[in-house]
Amino acid sequence: MVILILGADGYLGWPTTMYLASKGHEVIAVDNFAKRQWELENGITPLFPIATMHRRVDVFKEVTGKEVILRVGDLLNHRFVYKLFDELKPDIVIHYAEQPSGPYSMRDRATAFHTQNNNVLGTLNVLFAMHNIHNDCHLIKLGTMGEYGTPNIDIEEGYIEIEHKGRKDTLPFPAQPPSFYHLSKVHDSNNIRFATRIWGLKTTNLNQGVVYGVETDETKLHTELETSFHYDELFGTALNRFCVQAVSGHPMTPYGKGDQKRGFLNIVDTLKCVELAALNQPEPGFMRVFNQFTEVFSINELTHTIKDSASLCGIEAEISHVDNPRIEMEDHHYNPVHTKLTDIGLKPLLLRKTLIESMLKKISEYKNRINRKLFIMNVKWKKS
What is the largest CA-CA distance in the chain? Predict the structure, then answer.
């Protein structure tokens, strides 16, 4: 298959690019390197040194013999997007190319504006390219479990059957996003659902949980093939950050009581989920939704699991709760459904079995690069 990967320079985009290219697909990697610019603006560097995208592509070919085509451009430029679809006629479009951080989106007006402008309008250009240029392709869009929020009912996979005043209908599951970033994903979902219905497109929305992990089979092949592992408060996910804090000797810092629950999955499972979505095509005209995670943990469960695993590595990790900078429920019901991906073949890697020992050892190799100032960057949802 011809596979177009948008946002191919990122934490998930680059491993996905290598994984699918290794499978023999013709992969075209697209990025404008905006994430690297946001990192520079905020004094952030990934834990591992990251080669340029051009260098990564060259090294990948040297090591594997597989070629990845690199195209540099911005999804906000519709002419660039239209040209991609016209020249390449992709079978699959995997869309990671969005500002990925809730905290970044909540820092100030400018970052909120930039997040929604970049994410929503870039996706609109992709939809119009599918409609106007090449509609015989399948869009796989990375959403987020954060679109749902934490309702006091079980979370279904995208849709819910409702009975009201004697009538029934299946409707999109109510969205209660916790940040401007998550809200941009809701706007995406609404736009994709609408465009899919009126234009008969083939689309899958992957509402992903929190991803953790430092390595995939392909990143292990060469040091210049590693992905951009973040541990800072802006772009680093909770489990990744806690692991780096433990290794550095800094207390792990769960927000508030730490009873917040979320869905989690290993980065290797992200690649498998995307592949399964690509190999199992949806029917045109209806946006398919998969809840993409494998396990649910509270933040306290995460920190204690890491503490126990760290002790096996000779690391005495500590836990120190901090004031919650976010506006969120800390004690809540959380029971999301996630059966559709396992139904089509996902065999998940579970946290306690794969875990953290390998992450802690890998992180320890780069301990001298850890900048503790990045653990807490004082982004608050509500200004005091």
Answer: 64
Domain extent at residue 364: 2-374
Catalytic residue among 19, 96, 104, 185: 185
> 181 catalytic, yes or no?
yes
245-258 pLDDT, tens digit per residue, is: 999 999 999 999 99
DSSP state at residue 223 = G
pLDDT of 354 over the 70 cut: no
Indicate whether 305 belongs to any domain.
yes
How many domains is the chain partitioned into structurally? 1
Please tell me the distance from the alpha carbon of residue 258 to that of residue 250, in angstroms, as a whole number.
Answer: 17
Catalytically annotated residue among 17, 111, 115, 144: 144
CA distance 236 to 229: 8
CATH code of the domain covering residue 97: 3.40.50.720
CB-based burial of residue 305 (10 Å sphere; 0-12 exposed, 13-18 middle, 19+ buried)?
middle
Query: H-type helices in 280-324, by residue range?
Result: 299-312
Strand order in the sheet with 295-298: 210-212, 261-266, 295-298
Active-site entry in 19, 96, 148, 181: 181
pTM equals 0.97
